[in-house]
Amino acid sequence: MPTLSVEVFGPEPPCARCRAVEKNVRDAISKIGAADISIKKLNIAAKETVQRYGVLISPALAVNGVVRVMGRIPSVSEVERLLRQALGT
Amino acid sequence: MVLTERIRAVRSLIMLVFIFFTIASLIYSRIMAYSLAPTMKPADFHGLPIWEIPVAYLMDYFSHGWICLLFAFVVAGLVYEFVPKDAITRYMGGNKVTGYGLALAMAPFLTVCSCTMVPIFAGVLYTGAGIGPAIAFLLMAPAANILSILLTGEIISWELAAVRIVVSVVVALTAGLIVSKTPWGKSIERELQQSNPTTQRAVEIVKPPLDERLLASLKFAGYLGKQILPYFLLGLVAVGYVEAYLPEDIVGRYLTGVTGVLIASVIGGPLYTPTLVEIVLGKGMWDLGMSKGALLSWLMGQPYDVANALAVSRITRWKVVLTYMVIAWAGSVVFGLTYGVLSGSL
């Protein structure tokens, strides 16, 4: 199974909506059951993050470095779809 | 779990009916000419025992206000969910005019949630749009976000809501232009441009089905309500006491005329809470005789609140913060006076 990296973007300290995204991502990963998915939390107000990903509006979510969700909370089933798509299963 | 098309359609329909009901009830109340704002006048509170004042005020408020609040939160949730957010990132790095235009046009729709404001400010700055549009965004956002405009219109008056938008645009634009011309503003822009590699960013936004978007927007409306309403309620209790105990001659003496505008513009800032309390408090003092000019500068005083200023000074420099604060304050005084003179209520 290929490895996946998931990035969650939010302000520091994290706000409630960004925590909700992170939780949905964790739930989706445990549903898929693949071990090789890493989650990273990135600060949306950091210069490197903005210039590398181009995200402005939190919460946001990127899979393998590609921003897929911006400014809203994706549901668990939606994250699951995104991850399965990226895994090719 | 895979949802079939039919289940999705039914779920969408149920939510659309709810949204339709919310909008229809506001229109119905308009046609029937109900007042959705609190109707009790200061005189009604005299003679009530101390514990009964907030109860009476809240009862009075919610018998009218629930439609207005429900409408405001639902609309804010819908707008926030459906506004195309990738557009702002795609065009922000372009030329100056687009930068200012986007900052001013998008601010009202993106910042119903106060915690997104400083990150977006930083983001606008880092995408290379320059400090001008970033400052314009920062000042436009709290003064004219969709939730506070809807409530200003419903609770105070639509005339004032419209004036508030126009004045916010002018002040935000002026502050942005002036800060971008100052030496300290320019030095920040230079710093950021040097460290701005033109990398190709990968953004492929996915569009979820309609029912999920509707559900998400209603959830967001609920989240906003949970964040804001407790403070809003406390604010209403405070306003109840203000209306009951603040003598009208004090308000009449200090919150009218040129002094009124000056005092209102100064106390508006530190009292800012992103909870819409300033609108109800403004309405309460207006009832007690505050002039319309002072009321405008009271509402305009919001953008230079302390919490945001601290966060911004960490990203830029305190000189930038000081500059835009002075401009925002001057703007609130100038336009408060102008509006007072023009509307004949100074």
Structure description:
The complex is a heterodimer of chains A (89) and B (346). Chain A is α+β, with helices and mostly antiparallel strands and 89 residues long. Chain A has helices at 16-32, 47-53, 76-87, and strands spanning 4-10, 37-43, 60-63, 66-70. Chain A is globular. The termini of chain A are close together. The mean pLDDT of chain A is 82. Chain B is mostly helical and 346 residues long. In chain B, 78% of the residues lie in helices and 0% in strands. Chain B is built from 17 helices and no strands. The A-B interface holds A 11, 15-17, 44-47, 50-58, 65-75, 77-78, 82 and B 1, 80-81, 85-86, 88-89, 92, 110, 113, 115-116, 118-120, 122-124, 126-127, 192, 195-197, 199, 201-206, 208, 212, 215-216, 219-220, 223, 315.
Features:
heterodimer; A: 89 residues; alpha+beta; 3 helices; 4 strands; B: 346 residues
Overall geometry of chain B:
flat
List SSEs of chain A in N-to-C order.
Answer: EHEHEEH
The profile of the biggest β sheet of chain B is: none
Largest sheet entry of chain A: 4 strands, mixed
Provide a short characterization of the protein structure.
The complex is a heterodimer of chains A (89) and B (346). Chain A contains 3 helices and 4 strands, in the order βαβαββα.
Strand and helix map with partners:
The complex is a heterodimer of chains A (89) and B (346).
Chain A: E1 4-10, H1 16-32, E2 37-43, H2 47-53, E3 60-63, E4 66-70, H3 76-87
Parallel strand pairs in A: 1-2
Antiparallel strand pairs in A: 1-3, 3-4
Helix pairs in contact in A: 1-3
Chain B: H1 5-31, H2 42-45, H3 52-82, H4 85-92, H5 96-110, H6 117-129, H7 131-143, H8 146-156, H9 158-181, H10 183-194, H11 210-245, H12 248-254, H13 257-268, H14 277-287, H15 292-300, H16 306-315, H17 318-343
